[in-house]
Amino acid sequence: MSTARQQLEAQRAEAERLRQRVAELEAQAATEPTPVSEKEGPGQVLEQLESLVQTKDQEIQTLKSQTGGTREAPDTVEYEEIQQKVQDLETRNVELEHQLRVTEHSLEEARAEREQARAEVGRAAQLLDVRLFELSELREGLARLAEGAP
């Protein structure tokens, strides 16, 4: 029975860690200006992940109350049900961690693409400035030629 409690405590700690990580990611995303398309994708996924973590935490609380309420040895069926729920929660925890890693990765890729686009726009602006300066010099040269021609 103490093994089930230890597993439940471990699951609860993991759920809290995931909840904190989601909050960190949301805070990080909120401090950076992002285009509308980025706000819709990763933000929704983070909200879904946070909701799943909360649901998981509620399930853990339910399991804890079930195991805490029965001080006598639970019957085998009840114990197996609790063990199955713990195993299911562990599986779901792994899935949530994977989804979180995928979301973090896509967010980093989006940031890298945005920075690359900014750099390209900067280079294009510099090139345009050079071309405008050259055109201005050409115009002035043509104006001087026109004034000097009979």
From TrEMBL:
Residues 1-10 have a biased composition (Low complexity). Residues 11-24 have a biased composition (Basic and acidic residues). One of its GO terms (molecular function) is G protein-coupled glutamate receptor binding. Keywords: Phosphoprotein. InterPro entries: Homer. GO terms for cellular component: cytosol. Residues 1-44 are annotated as: Disordered. Transmembrane segments: none annotated. This is Homer scaffold protein 3. It comes from Molossus molossus (Pallas' mastiff bat). The lineage of its organism: Eukaryota, Metazoa, Chordata, Craniata, Vertebrata.
